[in-house]
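Tutorial handout. Part one gives the primary structure; part two gives the three-dimensional structure as tokens.
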Amino acid sequence: MNVLESDLKEDGRADLTLRLSNSLSELKRIVDALYAMKERYSLSERDFLTARLCAEEVFTNIVRHGFFEGDGREVYLRIEADADSIRMHFQDNGKPFDPLATSPTRKKETLETALAGGRGISLIRAYAQELRYAYQEGYNSLSLTIRRELRRA
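Part two.
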């Protein structure tokens, strides 16, 4: 796994940074990294699945809509976890796109009239408690925070 940095801080925070090519085949590396964090830092199954869904949606949108797949560009993903939350920071140099400026997907009346796709941003909004976007010096930066499930002793 091409991990730039991985660390467990003294206070129990986890920190992992990945450099990914802009190919959908990299989804496996993202899932593997999240699974390793789940095992090493005691993420619940719910926390793992929520983080996985959000990471897969964001990364897939970057690859499919940000630039041509496989054109040699890279995406950076930093994952941080502590007792309260999981934070993911995506950075890419694709086309500027602010997902927070888009309208939420309208509910369709019937299954027959619903179109495939177009719901990823709505899913991310539903699961992330905090979303931030910036475009600076040619880079899209999207950060999201997911509140971790409370553990009862």
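Part three, for discussion. The two ends are 34 Å apart (CA to CA). Residues 45-66 form the longest helix (22 residues).
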